[in-house]
Amino acid sequence: MSVRSIGPRRATLAGEVRGELERMIVEGDLKAGEKMNELALSEIMGVSRGTVREAIRSLADSGLIDLIANRGAYVHETTFAEVRNLYDLRGAVFAMACSSAARRVAEGLARDVPKAIERNLDQMRKATAKEDTARYYKLNIEFHDLLLGAADNPKAKTIYDNLVKEMHLFRRRGLSVPTNMARSLAEHEAISAAVIAGDADSARAAAHLHITSGFARYMKMLEQDPDVAG
Amino acid sequence: MSVRSIGPRRATLAGEVRGELERMIVEGDLKAGEKMNELALSEIMGVSRGTVREAIRSLADSGLIDLIANRGAYVHETTFAEVRNLYDLRGAVFAMACSSAARRVAEGLARDVPKAIERNLDQMRKATAKEDTARYYKLNIEFHDLLLGAADNPKAKTIYDNLVKEMHLFRRRGLSVPTNMARSLAEHEAISAAVIAGDADSARAAAHLHITSGFARYMKMLEQDPDVAG
DNA sequence: AAAATGTTAAATGTTGACAAAATATGCCGT
DNA sequence: ACGGCATATTTTGTCAACATTTAACATTTT
């Protein structure tokens, strides 16, 4: 067939607005704690208030916003106490996903996963050698996406993605760039080895350790630079 | 304060409708796969279509319904393949929660949790002795709620509750009543012991095993009575 | 008869208007 | 100035009407 559907699958207007709001929040266009005025947003985007309202409602369960009856929506302000809970949850989901990925590799499903992981690891080693943190940051996200995908559990992936987005709302620094690439890489290698070997329990343990270590590293960074935590 | 709001805090009409829809789905009033007609529902409930629409949208991320652009909302039909994914996720969240609960007990927070757990276990032992499955069912839910509460991780509790609701959508039997009370009780005792002792790692392992065993038991039941699985 | 096309009915998507609640404003007294 | 109260404005909640898309049906064509 030579004819292809035109444009980026624009299903509904409200869906598009939702995406735009999400972007504005994650990129800091709308700051944490800020109120989301339905009328103002609708005028900025050139759609009706009802449409903005619907988009806001659809974001309610993502953790990015807080909804208060008769008082509107506010960009969620992630507190220090919540960060630990988010790390705990993220660790649990990620560990489960790696375990599932390993199981699926062992069962012969996900045959192309090992190669994709190896490729990612290779690039990470190079980025680490060059101390290219920006590249490492991208590859790190790709690594996690790869494993979440290999687990073949769409709901887990959705939950994980929402958790990551919500963590970005805690101040603005520190959660994005790994503080210690070499350390992080070593943990990735351990996870990868277990998954490729099809060892579900080892994969779970290694993944859990990876998130736990990430939290510990982050805490240590906060001690050195308390301003970030407020 | 002498006046208390009746039932779960419901400030807005759309929120009330949402609750009613949730009830209709979980109790089977709206069957899995069934289409949710906005106009029909609005007439049944005596509210405007827009309000029903908003309620439906707010349920979108709960896993209970599927939303298709320009085609409306359908009650989610949980497939057999999804059940495993749901079990995996539930196990991960529950294990994490029990681990957190144990840590909090060890840290001296959650001082009244051990007593509450003991009380629940006592009643469970009695229900098991009397083979009172209905009572055991209630206590079982209470047990899980207790630990999710002790973890002090509201988001985890929300996710867990949604997972449980979604699992109910897989046919109608088998997921509610434990197939083997004695076995289940023994696992609860193991979890409880670890939590009360403040041993986070043991609690995590015991909780994980509990969900895994539950899945295995369920699978075995399906083998004996394949009609349930379709 | 089966497939493709044209037409009609029904459902969803979007908008603007009205009602109710919350916030801001201004007045008054001390 | 300050705090309390009535009032005005703003904002959210709800509803009804219009536009667009989808689904169902009848008709034509092969």
What's the short story on this structure?
Two copies of one chain form a homodimer. The first copy, chain A, is globular and about 55 Å long.
Notes on the structure:
- The structure is a homodimer.
- By secondary structure, chain A is mainly alpha-helical.
- Chain A contains nine helices and three strands.
- Chain A has helices spanning about 15-25, 40-45, 50-60, 80-105, 115-130, 135-150, 155-170, 180-195, 200-225; strands at about 35, 65-70, 70-75.
- Chain A has a three-stranded antiparallel beta sheet.
- In chain A, strand 2 (about 65-70) and strand 3 form a beta hairpin.
- In chain A, helix 4 crosses helix 6 (about 135-150), helix 4 runs parallel beside helix 8 and helix 5 (about 115-130) runs antiparallel to helix 8 (about 180-195).
- The longest helix of chain A has 27 residues, at about 80-105.
- The first copy, chain A, is globular, with a radius of gyration of 20 Å.
- The termini of chain A are far apart.
- The structure holds a DNA duplex (30 and 30 nucleotides).
Offer a few descriptive terms.
homodimer; 230 residues; mainly alpha; three-stranded antiparallel sheet; 9 helices; 67% helix; 4% strand; disordered N terminus; DNA-binding
Ordered list of secondary-structure elements with their pairings:
The structure is a homodimer of 230-residue chains.
Chain A: H1 13-26, E1 35-36, H2 38-45, H3 49-59, E2 65-68, E3 72-75, H4 80-106, H5 113-130, H6 133-150, H7 154-168, H8 181-197, H9 200-224
Antiparallel strand pairs in A: 1-3, 2-3
Helix pairs in contact in A: 1-3, 2-3, 4-6, 4-7, 4-8, 4-9, 5-6, 5-8, 8-9
Chain A binds a DNA duplex (30 and 30 nucleotides) through residues 12-14, 37-39, 47-51, 53-54, 69-72.
